[in-house]
Write a structure and sequence with these properties.
It holds the Pfam family Acyltransferase. The chain is α/β, with parallel strands linked by helices. 35% of the residues lie in helices and 15% in strands. It is globular.
Length: 227
């Protein structure tokens, strides 16, 4: 499994660009930034409901991060910008060990990685989540910061839709999770337990943040993802 981590300066440049655009176009605010370690490896694990989630979390995070982004997105018009800002292409359909290796390299040099454990846009309630975030947390010895991204898609809107200009968007960073590294159990069991521990903590944080900020999660799967 090989994959070189993208240069750190790319994420720093991208964060500046992202923050400028997001705060110019929307009433976007971050909360809980004091919960994010400002040095050392860290993983941002966010819920996923709308097309702009990545850009919003990336731009409002208190430190630069390299996000795992579906490889197909790099084939669109935003592809050059994703490359420039050091995002990591992920071949989700077959489990991309190269992408995980690149992300692990970022953590090993003390950087930040962003990931959407749900794997795609949906209700954002973390009913299900993948194991990639747990693998990175265990292998990279990195705390996981749960992130609630709210307001990017309303019920009934398409997965590819953008929120209305100047609409209220919130990114809420929760307290870091240090996954349990129990010894004496098979690695697969350890991974499954860590993944569930992260899923539950993220689901709880998203639910609390949604209630606190008064921004409801969409109640449906986006219409253009039904099939």
């Amino acid at each position: 499994m090989t994959g070189s981590p993208p240069a750190a300066w790319r994420a720093a440049l991208g964060r500046h660009i992202g923050r400028t655009l997001v705060t110019s176009l929307y009433a976007a605010r971050s909360h809980g930034v004091e919960n994010v370690p400002l040095s050392g490896p860290v993983i941002f694990a966010a819920n996923h409901t709308g097309y702009l989630d990545g850009a919003v979390v990336f731009g409002l995070a208190p430190r630069p991060a390299h996000f795992l982004v579906l490889a197909s997105t790099f084939e669109l018009g935003v592809g050059p910008l994703l490359h420039l800002t050091g995002q990591i292409p992920l071949q989700q359909d077959r489990g991309d060990r190269t992408a995980l290796s690149s992300a692990l390299g970022v953590l090993q040099r003390g950087g930040a990685v962003g990931i959407f454990p749900e794997g795609g846009r949906g209700r954002g309630d973390l009913e299900k989540a993948g194991k990639g975030v747990a693998w990175l947390a265990l292998q990279g010895h990195a705390p996981v910061v749960p992130v609630a991204c709210l307001g990017t898609r309303a019920t009934g809107e398409l997965a590819s839709s953008w929120p209305r200009l100047r609409s209220r968007l919130v990114v809420d960073f929760g307290e870091p999770i240090s996954v349990t590294r129990a010894n004496g159990i098979p690695g697969r069991v350890r991974l499954e337990r860590a993944a569930e521990e992260i899923r539950v903590a993220l689901a709880d944080h998203v639910a609390r943040a949604s209630a606190h900020h008064g921004i409801e999660l969409p109640t449906d799967v986006p219409p253009d993802l039904w099939d």
